[in-house]
Design goal:
With 124 residues, the chain is an all-beta fold. Strands 2, 4, 5, 6, 9, 10 and 11 form a seven-stranded mixed beta sheet that branches. A four-stranded antiparallel beta sheet has the order 1-3-8-7, with no helix packed on it. The chain starts with a strand and ends with a strand.
Length: 124
């Protein structure tokens, strides 16, 4: 059984940084491409970032491009989301997700496995 466990969320002030981690167990981590999504109360879950299985290619939502960095360590079965210059509008529950193959890696339906989420709150 594949499990994804996020950590690293918290309450921070605008302009500061956080790093989220997501540890994957139950199957070879390198077989998954990975994504980060976020969701605010009452809103749909939205794409944040994606990284390929090798880590060689990444992509970001326009709202976080230049501020967030996705990376992975296949030896540690972990994907990271470094979030810099945080803004109040970044406040959400952040989820990591794993997929085998892709037609549209920006879409929620493209992912097979999900973590439980970690809350990020940015105060102004």
């Amino acid at each position: 059984q594949v499990q994804l466990v996020e950590s690293g969320g918290g309450l921070v002030q605008a302009g500061t940084s956080l790093r989220l981690s997501c540890v994957v167990s139950g199957r070879a981590f390198s077989s998954f491409a990975m994504g980060w999504f976020r969701q605010e109360p009452g809103k749909e879950r939205e794409f944040v970032a994606h990284i390929t299985r090798s880590g060689g290619t990444t992509d970001y939502a326009d709202s976080v491009k230049g501020r967030f960095t996705i990376s992975r360590d296949n030896a540690k079965n972990t994907v990271y989301l470094q979030m810099n210059s945080l803004k109040p509008e970044d406040t959400a529950v952040y989820y990591c997700a794993a997929r085998y193959s892709s037609t549209n890696y920006r879409a929620v339906y493209d992912y097979t496995y999900w973590g439980q989420g970690t809350q990020v709150t940015v105060s102004s």
